[in-house]
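ok so for the tutorial part 2 we go from a plain amino acid sequence to predicted structure tokens. step 1 is just haveing the sequence, like this:
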Amino acid sequence: MFRTSSICALLACLVSLAGLASPACAIDLTITGTCPGTITMTISGGPANETVPVLEARSAGSFVIPGGYLCTGTRLGLSSEGLRVRVVFQTDDFGYASFTTRSPGLVCGKYYQAITAHGTCSTSNVARMPVR
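step 2 — the prediction. this is what the tokens look like for a chain of 132 residues:
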């Protein structure tokens, strides 16, 4: 069975090959693993072949990207408290990327992540770091 994000990624690839504009599909961000320990962040349904930053904040919220930055006016599902770039992914031809890292106990359940794709300014769901 296909997930919606997988179908969107396939559609985006086909549309790209045809030389048409990419369709707007939701980006799915998942975080799996144990905290503290090894976690994996996975993006699916993202824009194909694009550099995509994972933003991190201390809480969920509705921060709006201010003027002078890429994607001005885009509303994130994150607050401005502690907002920073956690990691930057490079998506593949299907809008997929994955990153595995060690996560210290200090961040368990305390940080939230979301994505804003610079090329399309589309955003992902908000994912929370695993709880101990």
